[in-house]
Amino acid sequence: MDAQFWFFYAVLAARYLVIAGLAFVLFYIFFPKKFAGRKIQALFPRRKDYAREVGYSFFTFLVFALYGVLLSSKYVLPHTQIYTDISAYGWAYFALSVVLALVIHDTYFYWTHRLMHHARLFKLFHLTHHKSVNPSPWAAFSFSPLEAVVEGGIIFVVALLIPIHPLAIALFLLLMTVYNVYGHLGYEIYPAWLVDSPVGKWLNTSTNHNMHHKFFKGNYGLYFRFWDEWLGTTHTKYKETLSKLVSSGKPQ
Fold this sequence. Notes:
The protein has about 250 residues and is mostly helical. It has helices spanning about 5-30, 45-70, 90-115, 120-125, 125-130, 145-150, 155-160, 165-185, 190-195, 205-215, 225-230, 240-245. The N and C termini lie far apart (about 45 Å). The mean pLDDT is about 95.
């Protein structure tokens, strides 16, 4: 492997360790009692669960780093819409491109995620991730090799569909990591006013994704809840569970 591959790998691993590690330290080591009312499932994962999640995540980054090398290669890059001069589209589009990347990713994630739940594909692709029935922040990238290939493919989809600057890609991937860690946090940190607002009700929550891990079906979205609502795949007790957590703070 060349230096570029290991650079990408180091960035991916460091970002994961900092973001997931900070979340884990705050909610699982320093202040678990303080946030106890926001714990989605009352029990905590076991040490072997943490070890499995971290181990698979570090393997996932091998796949993601390889994708980074391929995307930036002379064989692929010229066929993408990646540009390097911000003035070509301006700062307003730069910001919009990050939002568009999130929307594209959410759609990609919903449909690939739902497909991986098909009976013929689940064990091969998605079972590894669902071994975290009660996920921790470390589960954010705990994928089987085949799922890692699927999940990492979003970077090609985005680069082919829309003009996007490398810095916008970096920001998109940072936001993806933060939201992925939040989704596997095991705690609901959104305030009631946000989840009840016209915008907030369409945002995905840690509660939403935690229930997906607990019940193994429904709640397939990543950042937003549009697809789940439009296609009727929201878990029937989601809103009730979320309401109890953000109002009374009782673990479910």
